[in-house]
């Protein structure tokens, strides 16, 4: 990302969702379940394999910023009957498509959407780069997990800023780790094992969609936060 921009107007979640950086048509359109351009490669685990190894009844997999939902469609026939695979995206599939049993694709903003069921697995492949209140979504997603569930997705610490635009990565990552999250800086992967209530001591101030490309080389959103007193 570009160096911190000071004095820039910050957008609310609703304003951000109208920008071309966020409401884009390329997010996870061609990414499949396994192979070269896949969830397995990006996450370091194959979601279907992980779900099959999990004990208990039919699993529920929630994919945030799912694009066309190709990974969910590919995973559905591999999982037991009764599994529920849900993809949520601001734009959604560009063309109507037949979906296998158990797969649902929802077009909705993640700032207000919540799932109707507990989730075995929550994934977000490069989706947090385009969201405003990244911490707010992470806290909500943690509460959606089953006790033995897993949340995993990409996070760019350079996109976390304080009120004056200065880097917020260090204090925010410290708070995420204190809440139980793990972070792999080499793969830019954030993870959480086991559902729980998460209270992060930061208030979302707004987002900057013109902060420039992040480590992926694509335009991304900088999220600004103010620390809350403890």
Task: Please characterize this protein's 3D structure.
This protein has one domain: 3-Layer(aba) Sandwich (Rossmann fold). It is of the alpha/beta class. Helix content is 19%, strand content 24%. It contains six helices and ten strands. It has helices at residues 13-16, 39-43, 47-53, 70-75, 134-144, 169-178; strands spanning 60-64, 84-89, 103-107, 119-124, 145-154, 160-162, 182-184, 189-193, 202-208, 222-227. The model has no long low-confidence stretch (mean pLDDT 93).
Q: Using the 3D structure, state the CATH architecture.
A: 3-Layer(aba) Sandwich
Helix and strand composition category: alpha/beta
**What is the gyration radius calculated from CA atoms?**
17 Å
Q: Could you give a short account of the major beta sheet?
A: 7 strands, mixed
Helices and strands, in order, run as: HHHEHEEEHEEHEEEE
CATH topology title: Rossmann fold
Entry summary:
This protein is α/β, with parallel strands linked by helices and 230 residues long. The chain has helices spanning 13-16, 39-43, 47-53, 70-75, 134-144, 169-178; strands spanning 60-64, 84-89, 103-107, 119-124, 145-154, 160-162, 182-184, 189-193, 202-208, 222-227.
Question: What tags apply to this protein structure?
Answer:
24% strand; alpha/beta; Rossmann fold; 230 residues; three-stranded mixed sheet; seven-stranded mixed sheet; globular
């Amino acid at each position: 990302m570009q160096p911190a921009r000071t004095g820039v107007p910050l957008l609310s979640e609703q304003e951000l969702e109208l920008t071309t950086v966020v409401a884009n048509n390329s997010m996870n359109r061609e990414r499949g379940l396994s192979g070269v351009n896949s969830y397995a490669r990006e996450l370091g685990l194959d979601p279907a394999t992980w779900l099959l190894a999990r004990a208990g009844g039919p699993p529920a997999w929630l994919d945030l910023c799912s694009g066309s939902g190709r990974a969910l469609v590919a995973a559905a026939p591999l999982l037991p009957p009764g599994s529920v695979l849900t993809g949520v995206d601001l734009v959604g599939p560009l063309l109507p498509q037949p979906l296998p049993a158990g797969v649902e694709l929802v077009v909705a903003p993640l700032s207000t959407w919540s799932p109707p069921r507990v989730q075995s697995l929550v994934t977000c492949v490069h989706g947090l780069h385009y969201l405003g209140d990244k911490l707010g979504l992470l806290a909500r997603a943690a509460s959606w997990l089953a006790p033995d569930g897993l949340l995993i997705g990409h996070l760019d610490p350079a996109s976390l800023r304080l009120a004056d635009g200065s880097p917020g990565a260090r204090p925010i990552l410290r708070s995420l780790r204190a809440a139980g999250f793990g972070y792999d800086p080499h793969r830019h992967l954030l993870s959480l094992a086991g559902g729980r209530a998460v209270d992060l001591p930061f208030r979302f101030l707004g987002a900057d969609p013109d902060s420039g490309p992040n480590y992926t080389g694509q335009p991304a959103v900088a999220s600004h936060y103010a620390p809350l007193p403890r």
